[in-house]
Amino acid sequence: MPAHHGSGRGAADGERVIASLRAAATDREGPGAAMSVPRSGLASAVAELTAEVSALHAERGRRRLIDLASGVLAGQLALSPVEATDHLLRLAGSMGLSAVDLAADIVNAAAGTHVSDGPAEAAGRAAAEAVPAAEARRIRRGIAATTVSDTAAAAAAALLENGLHRLGVEAVYLWRRTPTACLELAAEAGADPQEASHWHWIPPETGGPLHRVLAGAEADWLPSGPRPGERLPGGRPDAARALLPLELDGLTVGVALAVWPGPAPLNPIVRDTVAALCAPAAHHLHAADTGRGVPPQLASLLAQLDHPGVVICPTAGDGPPAAGGLPAHTVDYLNPAALRELRAFPSAAGRPAAQLYPSVHDELVGLIARANAAGSPQYAPALPGPRPDAAREAESPRPEMAEVRVLPLGGGRAAVLWQTGSPHGAPLARALNRIDRLAAFEDDASGGSVWGPAAYAVFGLDPGGPPLPLRSLGKRLHPDDAVVLDGLLASITDRHTGGQCLVRVYRPDGGVRHVQIAAEPVLAGSALVGIAGVYHDVSVQHHTELALTATFEQLSAAQAEAVLRDQLVLRLQQAIVPEAPSLETPPGLRVAARYRPAAVEDRVGGDWYDVHPLPGGRVLVTVGDIAGHGIGAATAMIALRGALHGLAFTGAPPEQLMGWLNDVALGTAGQPTATAVCALFDPADRTLEWAGAGHPPPLLLRSGRARFLEGSQNVLLGALPGAAYEGRSTQLEAGDTLLLYTDGFIERRHTGLDESLASLQVAAERLRPGLVEDQADQLMGAAEGDTEDDTSLVVVQVS
């Protein structure tokens, strides 16, 4: 044990220890191969950074293991953290071990886990043989690596690579227990992706060995495969398997399955080692890397797909925008196929879409925006698409995503499904990906048949038995589908033309499969001598498409209902605020008003205007704009417009009316905010009293010169309780023209407000003398607003 040095250790000694740690963290574990360089551009840069981050994560795991071991030593030997680390490094050097191996031994010993260096019978070997001490250390290190893994996927990979693989195991599965006692596949390593997708969700109603182990909390060792009548993942029915309950804090939180390539004697040492290796995986099952806040029904649906699928949502808060000013997006859920494509990303769910899919991010976000705006799915044959400046004869690069479909989920969210890109085109890639579920067959004229190997699995028949000719399949089909098969046979035999059909096949084990049959006649001259074709098991796709169709129909119904509501409110709004109203002529004024709805169809806005004579001879002229769009904005507009109309009959000045209207906005459902200008014109002396609330100023045109009326910077309506408003008084003259308008009349996306107001001033000075109706039309034609907002204009001419 080293002597205590206390605070006498200097910075140089600390730097030495840190340098030693860095060397220890990489000794015997450095990357064994150079990083492959993908295609250039943004995707290449992100891929290189991702590989670097993965390497840093691996190093962090080793550093964490050393830190844990140092902490154990510090507690046991009463050392400082620096002294404990120094002691660990010197012990490793004196024992001829790497610091990581010794750290694993210390951590395992502290946790009560022990794997001996004695003899053991390795699974799959014919006789017992001694396991070298180095092998035992690797197993202990595998236990520690599983403990310090970041995710369930990393834990499964550590289990297989650092321990189970050396016992002969070829695949490992980790299921977590959901609150409804369903088993959800949290991670796998070494498994066939297609098979893993079939075992992603296992409800308790199915029973079977997995739920038996979950309920009984006892391991099940199967040297020769599952018991008769039971099924488990694995390449061979008789392959050895080990089922282990995974416990955390006294509760069974999941199940682990280890699969060997064939039968294997599972002796006590192998069983103890497998159990010790798998036990730490329980810590990762309560937070499997699947998704954040995605409905379980949608997650389970996407999990059944054998091609990638994700749920993408707008990023909460501020984030770097995509192209065209679209909001940033986050990937909230990835199905197993999508996770397999992103092995290099730890904890992919919750990351920005720009990180996971950099080369297609802008195009993908654009598809999502269009899907949600239209309320219907969007499609792209390949992402990234061809560049506009690319030569037509140039070879197209391999797409990152092919056959992309975006289904809107509302609220800016969308489900994105695609096929993995292929240089040969998406259709061929899809066919190659599904080749394991295609089975060729050929019938001859004598009634014989030849099947491909996969056909027996489709129909649930013994591979050693005789195949069934196409004509004899009717008795194994649903009665309604036997007629469909007869139609296909008639087309082949009577018209010598091929065809296809979809049928439901009843298997001997009680299962039902949806099988697509495509068949062609084999002709010798004009004589039919046989039938050739393929059976395609489409059960997973069939059920998924039905579920997706039902989900989309519900979304479409909700969207249609929302559109209907918007249309009804829009009609009500147009009845109250018509585009070209016939206003009565108030005393002393000539008035024209124009209203232009938002550019987006059925987009309900919140603009209003009002011109109305009041008792005593004065005339109310007002223009306002509710913040936002939709039903809420329209109903708030109606409430504020009606309230101001009634309050004006009190004879109160405009600033008092604005104060009252502010109280009305604060008391209205949803507490809307609004800008407005309220003016009272007295024809007796041509005095205009007015007050604004965060609204663009009125424009006065006199003798061909235009100027904006200056008013106080009053706060907008509904923003501040008890707000006080100041009014102004302007003396008008005969022939003066006054313009009141909303911001949609002047605002432009890439132009400042001052420049927009200056453009309006120039347009007003260019007005030709004439009727006020003609001047209103001229101004609306010259309006430069391009924000797709509502536009309101009131032109008042003093007579």
Automatic annotation (TrEMBL):
Annotated keywords: Hydrolase
Organism the protein comes from: Streptomyces toxytricini
InterPro entries: ANTAR (IPR005561), Bact_Sigma-Reg (IPR052016), PAS-like_dom_sf (IPR035965), PPM-type-like_dom_sf (IPR036457), PPM-type_phosphatase-like_dom (IPR001932)
The keyword Metal-binding is assigned to this record: no
Domain PPM-type phosphatase: 608-798
Start and end residues of each stretch annotated as Disordered: 377-399
SUPFAM superfamilies registered for this protein in UniProt: PP2C-like, PYP-like sensor domain (PAS domain)
Official protein name in the record: SpoIIE family protein phosphatase
Pfam family, one: ANTAR
